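1st attempt posting a full record on here, be nice pls
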Amino acid sequence: MSNESVEAYLARRAEEVNASLARLVPADDVPPATIHKAMRYSLLAGGKRLRPALVISAGEALGAKAEKLLPAACAVEMIHTYSLIHDDLPAMDDDDLRRGRPTCHKVFGEAVAILAGDALLTRAFEVLSSQEAAPDAERRLLLVRELSAAAGPVDALIGGQVVDLESEGKPVTAATLEYIHRAKTGALLRASVVMGGIVAGATAEQQVKLHTYGEKIGLAFQIADDVLDLTATAEQLGKTPGKDVAVGKATYPAVHGIEASRAMALKMISEACAAVQDLGKGAEILTALARFVVARVS
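the predicted structure (as tokens):
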């Protein structure tokens, strides 16, 4: 990826994504102002914007321009932020800190936080259905289908969250743990990569490669997150560390141990890189991003 570091690449993409997000969500003085303030508070709170970066890098690997990929990238980030707002609620993970500052419900109250998440969820699909997201209706439909499937109850974000909640404080099998991680976190990461391919007009063969890559890094990312929950500080994480252990969450270190978990994450990244290696020069950033996912814990 030339002489640019992964950190510099992510910072550059995050700046572009943040500018687009600020444009795509109503200003905080637009009535009813409270809901727009809450949406923008959580959506524009920062973060590396890994999911949008994956949309952009996958599309660029196949020849699409970054500016054409931004609407899909922003839609993914809206879904991700909605899920974080709802995850942090007292009825779910009950967390006070997210992206280095108080969670949405701590600032705006539970009712407005729920509605802010709902608003971001619906806005994401409004963005994807617009002509700005893709040049033709068929691709827009494919984008909506991919993202809705990743956010839904069947082997996806909501389904993974349900099983995660039901598994708290209980012994879980390795198979259940993998399902939770592939669904709750991995599905949206995988969709990010596939959506970049859709915007770029990927062939069926290229989509299979992107799907495999996204699936592998999705699981590796969550394994790394599990390890960091035990080894990192609140400043490093931007959220409360040790929370998974405190509430008896199903995690890879709890089932497999820290070192075995690290080894599993590295294996997944190796398989992800192999899946896209023949995409040519455009795959360099995908490989670099995959390695970045586990560099935090290796």
